[in-house]
Write a structure and sequence with these properties.
227 residues, alpha/beta, 6 strands, disordered C terminus
Length: 227
């Protein structure tokens, strides 16, 4: 049985990858949020079976983390929850379990495992995704948008990396949706990306590399940027 799902993650690229995986398993994504206030507005206005949410969201009037999960459980008890987090310490897992969250997806794991977490949440079975002990980076350092791509393919991937969708990219570049889609598929083939989940993980890696470069550039002389 396929589910209606709401997705929440502070990084649009991660949310896009999650949506792509869920849709590939024929779940219906009914909304996406990138902060707590938008998430609770969606929960109030849109019926859904399940919420896939990052534990640490940008917060507004509503706090994130455990208070957010506690409020969801109190205000929307029928909604099942899969928590996305890189903080898979035992104390965090225990706290989530005490709040009724049985499915926790470690963000270091491959998104291909996410449907198993969704299934576990819906039937009330404990699930903790396999964390990658030796993770493979989505984008090797210095690879950029790929030296083997044509200028137009790099432009298309660059637009996707900025968070634009297919229709917006086609309109902005003055090309047809079919052309943009073809250039995206060609770039994916050259980069060895087999599906949209891998594509968005690749873009997320580019985004992380760019953020690190910006942080270094912004550091005062004689100092290095650190997390």
């Amino acid at each position: 049985m396929f589910r209606t799902v709401l997705v929440a993650d502070g990084q649009p690229l991660v949310a896009a990858g999650v949506k792509a995986v869920l849709r590939s398993h024929r779940h219906r994504v009914v909304g996406a949020a990138h902060d707590t206030d938008t998430l609770f507005a969606h929960l109030r206005d849109t019926a859904c079976d399940l919420l896939v949410t990052e534990l640490s969201l940008p917060s507004g009037l509503v706090p994130d983390g455990m208070p957010m999960i506690r409020r969801i459980r109190r205000q929307h008890p029928p909604v099942r929850i899969v928590v996305l987090t890189a903080l898979a310490q035992p104390a965090v897992l225990r706290a989530l379990r005490n709040l009724g969250v049985v499915a926790v997806f470690d963000k270091r794991s491959d998104l291909k495992h996410l449907p198993m977490a969704v299934h576990a949440a819906m039937i009330g079975r404990d699930y903790l995704s396999p964390a990658s002990r030796h993770p493979t980076p989505a984008s090797p350092p210095g690879r950029g948008l790929g030296s083997g791509l044509t200028p137009r393919e790099r432009d298309v991937l660059g637009a996707y990396a900025q968070g634009h969708g297919l229709d917006a990219i086609a309109h902005t570049m003055g090309r047809s949706i079919k052309t943009i889609s073809r250039q995206k598929r060609s770039a994916m083939a050259k980069l060895g990306l087999a599906n949209d989940a891998q594509f968005y993980r690749y873009l997320a890696g580019l985004h992380a590399d760019a953020g690190s470069a910006d942080a270094v550039a912004a550091s005062p002389p004689g100092r290095t940027a650190c997390a």
